[in-house]
Amino acid sequence: MTSKDLLDFFLSVVIVGLGIQCLALNQEIKDTAATYENRLEIQQSKYEDEIIDLKQKLYGKSFELDMATNHIELLNAENGASE
What we know:
The protein is mainly alpha-helical and 83 residues long. 96% of the residues lie in helices and 0% in strands. It has one helix at residues 3-82.
């Protein structure tokens, strides 16, 4: 075996090793991306739940305001009728 053959063999081994490392790195990147995607989906779900809660609270406050307005109108009508 000549030194050129040894060099070719060595470079082939290095190239195969780099290829294996690239495959492993690619899988790690995919796993990390999937983890972040899951986290984002969970966070989005939490935000959507918060939006629903806020809308319900807003609706409740709007209802309370309508009731208070009606009460004030009734009081004004009673005061106007009694005068």
